[in-house]
Specification:
Strand content: 35-45%
Strand order of the largest sheet: 1-8-3-6
Distance between the termini: 15 Å
Number of domains: 1
CATH topology: Jelly Rolls
Order of helices and strands: EEEEEHEEHE
Largest sheet: 4 strands, antiparallel
Radius of gyration: 20 Å
Number of helices: 2
Number of strands: 8
CATH architecture: Sandwich
């Protein structure tokens, strides 16, 4: 039985960034219980931006909480595992990375749990353009 192509209508939403690539929200900052100084607000427009958290040189597990204005929620908690023995041997190269589930239009602060503060480390936060794709139109159903 030969294969035949079938045309399907669709729609794709595309977001154009004013500046391409990730943009800094928080420059390299020593881990502290509450970090609110030095935050550059995300520029993702009304949709908001995802945040990429990068942690360097940490020595214990804990949590990082993002507080701000976001969708679908304004608070998000990232669980940071304890570093492996290999990561402890090379803290300059070892990183923990987390991308937020929420899209943020404003950031109030970042809160780090006590084990992270005691263990030290450096936190960097960048914004990623929020967006998605949507498909609509007639769908072909096969028997």
């Amino acid at each position: 039985m030969p294969l035949t192509g079938t045309a399907v209508r669709g729609q794709t939403n595309i977001a154009i960034e004013a500046t391409s690539g990730e943009q800094p929200v928080l420059a390299a900052t020593a881990v502290a219980a509450t970090i609110s100084a030095g935050i550059t607000q995300p520029s993702g427009g009304s949709v908001g931006s995802r945040l990429r958290i990068i942690l360097f040189g940490w020595t214990a597990g804990g949590t990082i909480t993002i507080n701000g204005t976001g969708l679908p929620a304004s608070t998000e908690v990232a669980t940071v595992p304890a570093p492996t023995p290999q990561q402890l041997q090379s803290p300059q190269l070892a990183t923990f990375e987390y991308e937020s589930v929420n899209l943020y239009t404003a950031i109030t602060n970042f809160q780090c749990s006590a084990p992270l503060v005691t263990g030290g480390g450096v936190l960097v936060v960048k914004q990623c353009q929020g967006g998605g794709e949507a498909m609509s139109g007639r769908q072909v159903q096969y028997p």
